[in-house]
């Protein structure tokens, strides 16, 4: 999915990508400065004016105001960049019976319907439901495997 950026931003990005306009050294310094700036919890115009950037106070205030306007969106996007997959926040289940009958045979079977509600998906994707059905034996097998995984994780955590 291509990000939706304004024309001005795209022009600036194209200029930053042009090595004849911006040297590799300046490009790396700009990236480091930008990443350092957006990860600071106390970014204000007063703090910016104390730097060696020699910006006028009005420019510092403009940048700080622009930063304050979008900092929560940036932090939300950055929080989704991780190795943590979506996590389960709710489970619903029901036990169902399936009865088949004919003049010769009668069969009854039980199965479990399970629904996991997850959250923590990347921005733009809704939290979703994971649904499946299994027999009682399959459910017991899954539960025993989950318990084994839990024991392994607890063992590793105590090492």
From TrEMBL:
Keywords: Coiled coil. Residues 129-156 form a coiled coil. The keyword Membrane does not apply. Pfam families: COMM_domain (PF07258). GO terms for biological process: sodium ion transport. Residues 87-157 form the COMM domain. Belongs to the COMM domain-containing protein 3 family. PANTHER family: COMM DOMAIN-CONTAINING PROTEIN 3. This is COMM domain-containing protein 3. It comes from Frankliniella occidentalis (Western flower thrips). The gene is LOC113203714.
């Amino acid at each position: 999915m291509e990000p939706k950026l304004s024309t001005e931003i795209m022009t600036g990005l194209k200029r930053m990508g042009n090595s004849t306009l911006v040297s590799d050294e300046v490009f790396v310094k700009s990236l480091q400065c930008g990443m350092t700036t957006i990860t600071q919890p106390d970014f204000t115009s007063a703090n910016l004016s104390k730097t060696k950037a020699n910006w006028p106070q009005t420019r510092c205030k403009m940048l700080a105001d622009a930063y304050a306007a979008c900092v929560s969106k940036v932090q939300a996007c950055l929080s989704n960049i991780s190795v943590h997959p979506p996590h389960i926040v709710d489970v619903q289940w029901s036990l169902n019976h399936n009865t088949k009958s004919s003049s010769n045979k009668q069969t009854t079977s039980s199965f479990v319907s399970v629904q996991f509600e997850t959250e923590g998906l990347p921005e733009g994707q809704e939290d979703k439901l994971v649904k499946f059905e299994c027999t009682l034996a399959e459910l017991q097998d899954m539960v025993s495997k989950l318990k084994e995984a839990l024991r392994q994780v607890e063992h590793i955590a105590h090492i």
